[in-house]
Design goal:
The structure holds two protein chains of two kinds. By secondary structure, chain A is α/β, with parallel strands linked by helices. Helix content of chain A is about 35%, strand content about 25%. Chain A contains ten helices and ten strands. By secondary structure, chain B is mainly alpha-helical. The chains are: A alpha/beta, B mainly alpha.
Chain lengths: ~260, ~290
């Protein structure tokens, strides 16, 4: 196994807000890596920084993809190297048909036969997109838009796929379906970096999990072990901890990672 | 009588429609009404005139040459001025386009003078034929046909070509376009080139009817802008239809109400549209669910 993505000690600012305070992370080929954390911890910021969507960021640190430096490069360049991004909130092209959305995913490709094969592959994952082929993407349901967004990112034949909150605003059944397909995609050889609030689902399908708090990683480990961890269970999975001696449930354990 | 008026409106309607299309194409990507559009077209027409009259090239060569010049001019203006604007807001962008208007007007006056020139066009506006009760010149017919052909090409371009779809994609969601590898800056350049070329066609079709001087596009620009507002600044089909509707209303007004006040119709329409349907008649815009 070789390392696809190597992030070393990046720091990101939103003008004056210190959002990432030295984050290091590596993603191995063929794995699913999950980043968990609260609102505002900086999970999405990591993905946006790597994709080059934040101007002049990271402020410090280096990012290497396939052994080449990509920090501060434009997203148009990074995408061409084989890194696709499914943004938070889907961001489909509202007034293009579902088919045209997928076609835009293959914008950088020239091989017609391969594109046609990938259309079939994605319609295989998400048969509903085939039915909605000629419908404006803006008129699709949230779940369908999420599928479209993932499909669009796959059309670029990525080696590594970034998923930002794929479960956002979806029903539990849909979440399960989407996560199943994420696993299928991974088994077919695409490495995945997943950012999620839904810790239970994310840890269930990922190989490695990291926990981010206030712009720093506070924990890292194989997902199976993280799932058993008491702190993770209490803070991210809503499993109650022990009763106190006085006989009532305390709201929180005192320990915080800071 | 009525039929005649409507038929006669078609050729001017085509010109309005072309200017409206040119403005809408830029408006959709740059989100700014380009008030320099008219002068860009005027300057390109002057280039065609120079190639024809001074350098004695054939009409086809001059026509193509002017189109290439128009494309280059569009790319140049966008790249050198609009893209430099830091933290642009709508107002400052509009001011920049007004700046284009004045600069280009000045350049044309300096180079070609304020004299009225005759633009030699291979199709005559004197030879006429009858279409039912209406009398049309061959130039009118050519104007309408060229415009329709251009619209068909635009339709096919935005419907079936990768670049055309990518242009729409960039207009709808620039961030999403970038993460799919679409070079949005390049798309912006293409937009300006395309728009400038459409405007140039309008200029070259108008020049033989009017006389060629730096004021050539002043009136058509305002009418084209009105048409675009009427049809909806975000809809290409709307802008095109708006051009014809405006021209027809204008001529009917001139015929049946008052010829002297014909030219205020366009402004009246802008006011009415902004009062009653600010998005324009044909804007079929998908509103994002919140």
């Amino acid at each position: 196994m070789s390392t696809l993505l190597e992030i070393k000690n990046i720091e990101t600012f939103y003008t004056l807000i210190y959002a990432l305070r030295g984050v290091s992370l590596s993603v191995e080929e063929g794995t699913i890596t999950a980043i968990l954390g609260n609102n505002g911890a900086g999970k999405s910021t990591i993905l946006k920084t790597v994709m080059g969507l934040l101007d002049d960021q990271p402020d410090k640190g280096t990012i290497e993809f396939l052994g080449k430096r990509i920090d501060r490069k434009d997203p148009e360049v990074i995408v061409r190297m084989g890194l696709s991004y499914v943004p938070e909130g889907r961001e489909v092209f509202d007034e293009l048909s579902a088919r045209e959305n997928l076609l835009m995913g293959a914008y950088i490709r020239r091989d017609r036969a391969g594109i046609r094969r990938d259309f079939d592959r994605i319609y295989g994952y998400f048969p509903v997109l085939k039915e909605r082929e000629n419908q404006w993407a803006g008129t699709l349901s949230g779940g369908e838009q999420q599928m479209l967004s993932i499909g669009r990112a796959l059309m670029n034949q990525p080696k590594l796929l970034f998923l930002d909150e794929p479960s956002l605003g979806l029903s539990p059944i849909l979440v399960k379906e989407i996560f199943n397909i994420i696993q299928t995609i991974n088994r077919e050889g695409v490495a995945i970096l997943l950012v999620e609030q839904n810790a239970r689902m994310a840890l269930a399908i990922s190989h490695v999990g990291l926990i981010l708090e206030s712009g720093r990683f506070v924990m890292k480990g194989p997902s199976k072990e993280l799932m058993k961890d008491k702190d993770v269970q209490e803070f991210y999975m809503g499993i109650r901890s022990e009763e106190s001696a006085k006989g009532y449930q305390r709201w929180k354990r005192k320990k915080r990672w800071r | 009588m009525l039929f005649e008026t409507i038929v006669n409106s078609l050729s001017f309607g085509s010109l309005y429609a072309l200017v409206a299309l040119a403005m809408v194409i830029i408006y959709k990507t740059s989100e700014v009404p380009n008030f320099g559009q008219g002068e860009m077209a005027m300057l390109s027409t002057f280039v065609a005139f120079s190639l024809l009259a001074t350098y004695k090239y054939s009409f086809v060569v001059s026509f193509v040459g002017a189109l290439l010049f128009a494309a280059a001019l569009g790319v140049f203006l966008e790249f050198t001025f609009l893209r430099r604007a830091k933290d642009p807001n709508i107002l400052s962008l509009i001011l920049i386009t007004l700046g284009f208007e004045m600069i280009l007007y000045g350049v044309a006056s300096w180079k070609w003078g304020a004299d009225q020139q005759l633009f030699p066009f291979p199709i005559s506006d004197q030879d006429t034929f009858n279409l039912g009760p209406a009398v049309l010149s061959y130039l009118n017919l050519a104007t309408v046909l060229i415009t329709l052909l251009l619209m068909l090409m635009l339709f096919l371009f935005f419907r079936y070509t990768k670049v055309g779809i990518a242009m729409k994609a960039t207009q709808q969601n620039a961030m999403a376009a970038r993460i799919n590898g679409i070079r949005t800056n390049r798309i912006l350049s293409i937009t300006w080139a395309l728009s400038s070329m459409i405007g140039a066609v309008a200029g070259m079709l108008l020049a033989p009817i009017a006389t060629l001087d730096p004021n050539l596009m002043l009136d058509p620009l305002l009418k084209g802008f009105s048409s675009a507002v009427l049809g909806g600044m975000t809809s290409l089909v709307g802008a095109a239809l708006g051009g014809y509707i405006l021209s027809i209303i204008e001529n009917l007004f001139g015929k049946y109400v008052s010829l002297e006040f014909k030219s205020i119709v366009a402004f009246g329409i802008i006011v009415l549209v902004l009062c009653f349907k600010p998005s324009g008649l044909f804007a079929r815009h998908y509103v994002r669910k919140v």
